[in-house]
Amino acid sequence: MAKVVLLGTLDTKGQEFQYIRDIITGAGLGTVTVDAGVKGSPYFTPDIDNAAVAEAGGTSLFELQAKDDRGLAMAVMTRGAAKVVSELYENGEVAGIISLGGSAGTTIGTTAMQALPVGVPKVMVSTLASGDTRPYVGVKDICMMYSVVDISGLNSLSRQILANAAHAVAGMVKGGAPPVAAEKPLLAATMFGVTTPCVTKAREYLEDQGYEVLVFHATGTGGQAMEDLIDAGFIKGVLDVTTTEWADELVGGVLAAGPHRLEAAGKAGIPQVVSVGALDMVNFGPMDTIPEKFKTRKFYPHNPTVTLMRTTQTECVELGKIISGKINAAKGPTALFLPLKGVSLIDVAGKPFYGPEEDAALFDTLRQTIDRNSVELIELDMDINDDEFALAMAKKLVSMLKQ
């Protein structure tokens, strides 16, 4: 029977884990406790002890205790916890997972959660949940709850927070997945606020053609999540309208997706239609967070927490080289669409980022570097959010899929 996994350091957080275990079992669910502590004795006897976790991580518990190296212990127990939880899932024993802790406990807990598929309920109560959670959440559906107070014993406040977390994971597990609709081929699309009209029009057309479209917000983790699902074999075709994450990767913005963005579809050999959506911008936080070296550049305040910076001609040349390099390597059918009148809602005549010279640098570089033997280049004299541009891309993807 699938159960809720309780993963953490039972030597230092055992009282708190016992508290949430009692709530979850009181809700009628079974539990599996996994101890990732190293030094002390567990507060209560776990179902899977720390020796087993250490062995799964490649080192004996005795050796970890003898070396007394916190960094080594963290690495081994993190690796071991992920392996133990993965094996439990493969054996059909995981209906959900909950963990709690500070920096070490959060690393151990979320690494194990990232080893589980999307859809498995995951709750992490953490002292770090009010900061930058990207390293912990990654591309998985991990719910992080801020502990407010340190996780150090039970008190009137921590009891309420831990109870909420326990009821949350219990409710997700008991609620179960929604009824599965008739299976349709899954497609992926990338969107930003400034390419929303394009992607919406294309999505509607693709859905009318019998496909299900997963739209990913091109915020760095969005692109990574899409590539992760492509690697896992879920996606049959890609409408990569919004490749803006590469602008952040190149220039140093806050929404980069890493150096492997725009590779997964090509490696998988699935059809992909690619465009240059929002390559006119690099993303930063509020104006006072922008690095000094960029202060003389052209900016646009998207909202109080997001400031956009216009890419230069030099940067657009580099972006063209990067994108052509990625799609030239594709093993499957690939088409590149260029919107000659603008790559975003604010890169059109009369709008703040209108830049015909910058766009020309991007387009010319792509024309010169694309391998015409493997990539079909399609240029349309309209902006990216024109309905006809969106439909042209969607129809090209459908034709590729049918072939």
TrEMBL record:
<dbReference type="Pfam" id="PF06792">
    <property type="entry name" value="UPF0261"/>
</dbReference>
<dbReference type="InterPro" id="IPR056778">
    <property type="entry name" value="UPF0261_C"/>
</dbReference>
<dbReference type="InterPro" id="IPR008322">
    <property type="entry name" value="UPF0261"/>
</dbReference>
<feature type="domain" description="UPF0261">
    <location>
        <begin position="3"/>
        <end position="175"/>
    </location>
</feature>
<dbReference type="Pfam" id="PF23189">
    <property type="entry name" value="UPF0261_C"/>
</dbReference>
<dbReference type="InterPro" id="IPR051353">
    <property type="entry name" value="Tobamovirus_resist_UPF0261"/>
</dbReference>
<protein>
    <submittedName>
        <fullName>Uncharacterized protein</fullName>
    </submittedName>
</protein>
<feature type="domain" description="UPF0261">
    <location>
        <begin position="184"/>
        <end position="400"/>
    </location>
</feature>
<dbReference type="InterPro" id="IPR044122">
    <property type="entry name" value="UPF0261_N"/>
</dbReference>
